[in-house]
Amino acid sequence: MKSVAILTGGGPAPGMNTVVASIAKTFLRDGYRVIGLHGGYSALFTPEPRQQDVDFLLADEIFNKGGSLLKMSRFKPTDEDFEKRFNLGFFVDNGVKLLVTVGGDDTASTANRVAKFLADKQYPIANIHVPKTIDNDLPLPNGSPTFGYNSAKAQGCVLATAVMEDARTSENWFVVSAMGRSAGHLALGIAGACHYPMVVIPEFFNRTEITVDKIINMVVSSIVKRKLMGISYGAAMISEGVFHSLSDEEIRGSSIHFSYDAHGHPELGKVSKAHIFNDLLERKLAALKLGVKTRPVEIGYEVRCHTPIAFDLTYCSQMGMGVYKLFNEGCTGCMVYVDHQGNVSPLYLKDMQDPATGKIPPRLVNVESNKVMSYVNDIMDYITPADYEAARRYVEHPEDYDFKRILGWD
User: Fold this and answer.
1) DSSP letters along 256-300, please?
2) Among 126, 216, 369, 378, which residue's CB has the most CB atoms within a 10 Å radius?
3) Looking at residue 268, what is its pLDDT?
């Protein structure tokens, strides 16, 4: 019996089950068996892969649920894995005609390696990738979002709104950190929707080096500005990407204690960015004697397995059905792309990769766009030259806390 195999790689995003269910429903109608693989790519490098048939009733049950029926993994096979442990029998014995992978650019790249390996073994197989990430940093055409981003942002807004209400009620400040290793889309999206008075994303530092002092001074700028406005509370949203953009020297000089990997790099994935930024801010506020209390809040894992909103339910369904369309058109080695009008087309990795490195560059926030600058200029609160005289009541050198001056935007 002809079969389709599906696996999920990387971390979860709202809509994973919707994609898998939509693929299953369309292929089942055409007489295919749909095999779900657990453990990402690790399933292909073991003699007894964990697998599960996805029938229509199961697909119908999971399509609107968060999380992922298919257990995920960041396993990345080595050349030795391909040479010694690849389970060719799984494809041959099950008559697999298509391998569908759901994940980021690493997952897509490995899918191409699998397809090439199978072709060399005289077992040609199609592979189609469905791109996902709540970070929204894959460079899809025409600003199309990656699936899961809008659902993660929506749930993030629920959490961030409650945090701001707590700040207002308790007259405190909160330091909120949002996921986004390479780009600040999620942090900016949540902060903008919730009218946070300060947001710090790595893209803001397009004219100056990112340092701990600059990050903290931007938050202090907002605190002082709101004091001048007669407001004693607030919240600052900081993208975790800002932290990952700091040099090792900056991190070591921050006096925060980290564990280090075998190469001497701080293991940033093991720490709460919100707690670190809050600790650094508290030290600064104590030195300035501003009498402001702050609390840390992390927005990350809480939004990855949330129930997808209507946008992602529709979008992921279109991508799942799009896989079937592209397969029947003979497409392989590509991502499925659905534009704003619902048109489906293949998107090939070679058209997205950097020709020198072979890697897909992340899609960054366009800080010069009207969308971003309107928020910066009209919603955010920070010290400007017009505030210098009044701000001296709180800080000796207010120009050091001028938001645009810190960034070199003045």
Assistant:
1) ----B-TTS-B-GGGS-HHHHHHHHHHHHHHHHT----EEEEEES
2) 216
3) 60
